Amino acid sequence: MLILVVGMSIAAYLAYNVWDRIQALDSAQQDHAEWVFTQIEIEFLKTDRALAQAKSATPEALEEFRKRFDIFYSRVLLAERVRNNAKAKPQIRELRLMLDGFLPAIDGTDAELAAALDDIEAMLRTVEDVPREIALASIAIASEMSQNERREIVRLIEVMAGIVLFVTLALVGAVYRLSRQASRLNQTTQMVEENHLRLATTLQASLDAIVVINEHGEIEDFNGSAEEIFGITHEAAKGRDYISLLIPPADRTAHRERLMRFRQTGVTEVADRGRREFEMIDQDGRIFPVEMSVSQSPSGQGALFIAYIRDITEKRLREAEIIAARDEALDAYHEKSRFFAMMSHEMRTPLNGVISALQLLQDDRLDDEQKRYLEAGMTSGEILLGHINDVLAIERSEAGTYEQVQHTCDMTVLMAGIINTMEPLAEAGGTRLHLDLTQLNDKAIVTDPRAIQQILVNLLSNAIKFSPGGDVTLKGWYAKTEAEGEEFYLQVEDDGSGIPAGDIDRIFEDFVSLDSRYERRTGGTGLGLGIVRRLVKRLGGEITCESTVGQGTCFTLRLPVERADLSEIDCDEAPHEQKKRVEPSPAKRLNLLLVDDNEINRDLIKAMLEKIGHDVTLATGGREAIELADSAPFDAILMDISMPEVNGVQATKAILSGFGPNKETPIIAVTAHALPKEREEFSAVGMSGFLQKPLDMKVLRARLREISAREVMPEQALPERLASAPVPAPVGGKFAKRPLLNEQQMTDLIDLLGEEKLRERVQKLFDQVADDLPALIATDALPNLQARAHAMAGMCGMLGADRLHGLLKEIETACKTEKDKDARALCEALPGTWCATQAAMKAQVGL
Question: At the top level of CATH, which class does the domain 714-845 belong to?
Fold first, then answer.
């Protein structure tokens, strides 16, 4: 349509233009030009005749000449301004320039004009042919212009004819297109009517209530589901105010304000904002929750709002039931946690008495039969304790309270320690243990050694149980990953009875034991592999099992690892509770306060402490402990936790916050409470350590030996050249928080070398440090200090001097970062740390 309008407009314009040009074909303009050019010739002749008369010099003749000259000059100027004078223009300009030269004389006096007449005559004789040539040129110009005008009119007529043809064709096309559109419009109208009927049917059949509301809040439509939900018919609802009809009284003001704001601003607060939940009311006055989605639709009479409404009463009831079930489950879970904590304490307390009594009997002279009975009792107690620990391990893992501690660890030493630990169990079953280190180099990794120890103990224990008289092999190796990283693999393989293929997926579940016969040979709770699965997951690894019935089983553990320096190893490399420990006499006889409300436990622990070589004062509860701590000093206080009236936590707070002689005395928790949150609470109130019931006499001896070593004045143990060195106050480095000795590493060294060889190595360390330490302290250059600290740190770390090793590593780090003042300040702590380390080592190895 636009093209037609434009084409017709152009055609009309061209028609007008042609008509105008035809009307202008008269010669008015050309005749005007010819007249002007002809008048130049006429006025030239008149001027020439007036010049002849002016030579008489009479005033009248001179005035007539001026008039004729002015007329001639004006005709020349007029000819110069005529359009289309390109051919005559140079001659006209030349003529005007000549005439301009005589204007002063013409405008001057009669005498001046009379004097110039001869020159004017000469000039006129020069240009007497120019007026004729200009007149002839005007004829040629007029002819050319007439021809050009006729050509332009012909061109315009041709263009107009083309446009008229185009417009005609366009009109024909438009008529055809309009006819097609009219046909399609009829079809579309019919389809719209059908869709409208279909939509109306769909809306009526919709499960959701659909209410159409205009911008004034009046109901325009009300489908069948709305009739069912609200109990109102379509006829009764249409035209009514939806707020008064469907909204509860308490919410009507808010809805009216929202609708008013929309009419004022045009901005909706509910429409096209997703699903919202409201409360609505039905015909019977029942207020119920609904889920509503509103869409805005423009119309000729203003905006329309289409509300899709769903009654969610049942949904709310289901949600409430789910929340109630969740709360019940959480309550049950908390009850389970409290049950585990309570049962842990209640079971460990009597078990403490049993194992402690057996340990005391173990040191007495017994005949062979009594020793067998004693060993049977100890074995049963350890099995029961293992079951309790397994259940608690599952609880800690499920509660997310497992404490994962990353250390630098030599996997070669760790694996060797595990094999040594499991040898007695293997020998009892006639099983041969093998350690394959052929693919494992001496590089260290950063990991949680305690978790790996527990994993390997569980896997090896299972392999030993199910391979009596057979072979069990522990193997380790490193492998590169596709992402240029590295992984560590551990493999435990046995040649035992194997696992059926259908049971492999079940063995990692809790409380699953495949040996379910009445005459079952193997023991256990069925939790070992469940614990393994959880620990492997926490380490970010994966464990798989391959087995063939009658041929054996192979467990493969894959762990992502981070490589580390062997000189920085500071991890425990064997299970804490199963390692042999050195048991020399204490460095100092301690005066201890033992607090326990259980008489049997109190007497047994006292006997253990006195057997180790310490003095013991007893308190039967927290209140008595506070009174005794206020009256006399003690070297350490062993504090039970669960006691009537005043518990161990309350007693500890009172002692440490008081002004008695024990406000700085180390207080060690001795309790069956073993959950991590409980340990955190003990540490938060100021307790210095933790001993778990049932007490292991070796662990108890080691803890007291550490306290004993702190009490020994180390100056007498210094080499002669350092004996006079002042012992500075501890500095605030990370090393100050580390124990003097790595107890586990010392135990490993004894198992590996024997006590006598270890004493030789320790004595060599004493001699080497006596030689190297003065030179290290006196070193000025940071590079030399760094090299000496690195060499001594590696030597001390290998022999378990944990705190000294940490101090030397901090000195080395300070040197690397060029922190000269920090390095010198740390060096000042070396003599005192070495003195304490030397005294503790002597007490540990019996030097």
Answer: mainly alpha
